Amino acid sequence: SLSSVDFTPLMKGNLQTLALSDNKLTGKVPDSIFQNGRVLHSLFVDSLDADHRMTGKLPENFGELGGLPNLKHMSFNNYNLTGKLPKSLGKLNCTVSYVTDTNVACDIWLEGNDFDGEVPHELCDAKWNEIYLGHGNDKLNCSSLPCIPAQYASAPDDCDYKNGAGDCVKC
Questions:
Q1: DSSP string for the chain
Q2: Global pTM?
Q3: Mean of the per-residue pLDDT values for the chain?
Q4: Which residues are 54's β-sheet partners?
């Protein structure tokens, strides 16, 4: 179980990448994984194992100062995360990559979870390389969302979308 792990010392340091995928993790995702990660640019906590899945929510402010303001790559595929998608996802600095300043930076993978409610309009404010919200997020509603600019994307199954080479995911 990852529930009782305190990531605060790692996040306050110079941690740039945290990769915990495919390690049979269970429990609640600790809030400390989303706090004070001023230089963290990559966070990978996927699961391919249906018997080992974490629960919890993405905090509303994790994409802001005090959270993970420099996050560029995040994957929480195939967990039991619930609640609303945070508006702060749209506040991530996705205009410049940490690798090269000519590439759109952000890749967010949140498929196979149990989010609900409206997809926040703030997601339209960022330029995404990849954003995957579909497949398993059947309770998400994007009926009032005009477009998410992304090179590659998937939206919830009930959304009408298209993607590819700069097109918008239209919901």
A1: --TT---HHHHHTT--EEE-TTS---EEPPGGGGSS-TT--EEE-----TTS-EEEE--TTTTSTTS-TT--EEE-TTSEEEEPPPGGGGGS--SS-SS-TTS--EEEE--SSEEEEEPPGGGGGS-EEEEE--SS-TEEE-TT---EEEEEEE--TTS----STT-EE--
A2: 0.81
A3: 78
A4: 27
For residues 71 and 36, give the distance between their C-alpha atoms in angstroms, rounded to a whole number. Answer: 11
Q: What are the pLDDT digits (tens) for 2-52?
A: 888 999 998 888 899 999 988 888 888 888 988 888 888 899 988 877 676
Rounded CA-CA distance 150/90 in Å is 12
Spatial distance between the Cα atoms of 49 and 83, rounded to a whole number of angstroms: 22
